[in-house]
Design brief:
Strand content: 5-15%
Number of domains: 2
Enzyme class: transferase
Radius of gyration: 18 Å
CATH class of the largest domain: Mainly Alpha
Structural class: mainly alpha
Organism: Roseibium album
Keywords: Transferase
EC number: 2.5.1.18
Shape: globular
Oligomer: single chain
Number of strands: 4
InterPro entries: Glutathione-S-Trfase_C-like, Glutathione-S-Trfase_C_sf, Glutathione_S-Trfase, Glutathione_S-Trfase_N, Thioredoxin-like_sf
CATH architecture of the largest domain: Up-down Bundle
Bound molecules: glutathione
Strand order of the largest sheet: 2-1-3-4
């Protein structure tokens, strides 16, 4: 038994973890998973207006200075990387993903890694192409190429859905892959990519996302992430001003 996973009576218990994030950042994926699992957790707001994620204190949690981080009782270090956090949670709870012995395990892992290291990674770059391609006169070309890659990524998911007849990515029940894909689709339609990609050529994914939008756990997660409306099929950006107002009102301090 790992430290912190036992009650005083020696019974196993679900650890209470601590999620560090900011509204509508990658912690949205983790939050949806936590809410769907009914896990207990605390949320620590990282102030992006003050670039808190780049502070020395935050870098002790994630030396990359990136959001999210999950602190997990009993682990010898905070966990960063959205995919890793999600995998830890679903494996611990043995829900929202095939267990290790299941024949769908390989299929699950390959799409989880695809979401994490290809689709999500491309999206990240598309928000800030200048960080990767400093020549300003060429960055439009670079961004357009990235959007093509992102569109191809969604098309791969769409094809998988059609081939396996869904209704969700791994079959009849929603799993963490669906939540991760939904968040990526949300971000692909707004922020730096506003108006440049939509769900028009992904009717299967659109149906998945419509179903997710009806789930109480997703509604709870979105509310806490300050996301209004239909988060995946008609997404509206969360503004930093809205985020700041929320936290000033809540704690009565800027
Ligand atoms: N590969 C990382 C990417 C995380 C990421 O891009 N986080 C963004 C917010 S969604 C961030 O922290 N951005 C701050 C920055 O780039 O300075 C993961 O999956 O967790």
């Amino acid at each position: 038994m790992i430290d912190g996973w036992e009650t005083a009576q020696g019974q196993a218990r679900t650890p209470r973890c601590r999620l560090h994030g900011a509204p509508d950042n990658a912690n949205l994926v983790v939050r949806m998973v936590l809410e769907e699992l009914g896990a207990e957790y605390d949320f620590v707001h990282v102030d992006r207006v003050a670039s808190e994620q780049k502070s020395e204190t935050y870098r002790q949690l994630n030396p990359q200075g990136l959001i999210p981080v999950l602190e997990w009782p009993g682990q010898d270090a905070p966990v960063f990387e959205t995919g890793a956090i999600v995998l830890m949670l679903v494996d611990h709870h043995r829900r929202l993903a095939p267990v290790q012995e299941a024949p769908e395990r390989g299929r699950f892992l390959k799409w989880l890694f695809f979401l994490s290291n290809t689709l999500h990674a491309d999206l990240r770059i598309s928000f800030k192409p200048h960080r990767y391609f400093p020549a300003k006169d060429q960055s439009g070309v670079f961004a357009a190429a990235l959007r093509k890659r992102i569109d191809s990524g969604f098309q791969l998911l769409e094809r998988e859905l059609v081939a396996k007849e869904g209704p969700f990515l791994l079959g009849p029940d929603p799993g963490c892959l669906d939540f991760y894909a939904a968040a990526c689709a949300r971000w692909a339609q707004i922020y730096g990519n506003c108006g440049r990609w939509d769900l028009g050529s992904s009717p299967g994914l659109r149906r998945v996302f419509e179903r997710l939008e009806c789930r109480p756990a997703v509604k709870r997660a979105c509310e806490m992430e300050l996301i209004a409306g239909a988060p995946f099929t008609r997404p509206v950006p969360v503004t930093l001003a809205r985020e700041q107002k929320h936290y000033v009102d809540r704690y009565n301090q800027p």
